[in-house]
Write a structure and sequence with these properties.
The chain is of the alpha+beta class. The chain contains two helices and eight strands. The model has no long low-confidence stretch (mean pLDDT 94).
């Protein structure tokens, strides 16, 4: 099988509130990580787009919430083989402050099928994308 290499740079939000984290469940259209996993809101940076602009756009599409503030805290790289593509994903992690409380998926036919504030105590790594696992470790290590 011929596997095409592809690089994608993505910006992800780490939003915590009252012991909960904002996560989206990946739809069948997810190009990189397995559908059904819970993942950080955010996504690919379009050509010519600044990372913070991409984060703001993706948050609006996937959660319906507005970005108030974003602070870059770290980055990670992942390699994933899915759908005939060998992905090299560069993930930029942002600690964010959001406006609004009730998330809802706004984008039609996107890569997120549901979005929720999930209590940290209820999370198991097996239900999370690799990027979500790493992102949560970044923000909960000192907590």
């Amino acid at each position: 099988m011929d596997v095409r290499p592809r690089t994608r740079v993505s910006a992800y939000a780490l939003a915590l509130k009252e012991g909960r984290v904002l996560l989206g469940r990946l739809a069948d259209t997810s190009p990189v990580f397995e559908p059904g996993l819970w993942h950080l809101p955010g996504g690919g940076i379009d050509h010519g787009e600044q990372p913070a602009q991409a984060l703001e756009r993706e948050l609006r599409e996937e959660t319906g919430l507005d970005l108030v503030e974003a602070r870059l805290i770290d980055s990670r790289a992942y390699t994933v083989q899915r759908g005939g593509v060998h992905w090299h994903l560069i993930a930029l992690f942002y600690a964010v402050e959001l406006k609004g409380d009730t998330p809802e998926v706004v984008e039609v036919a996107g890569t997120t099928e549901a979005v929720e504030w999930i209590p940290l105590a209820e999370l198991d790594e097996s239900m999370l994308s690799p990027a979500a696992v790493d992102g949560l470790r970044l923000v909960t290590a000192g907590a």
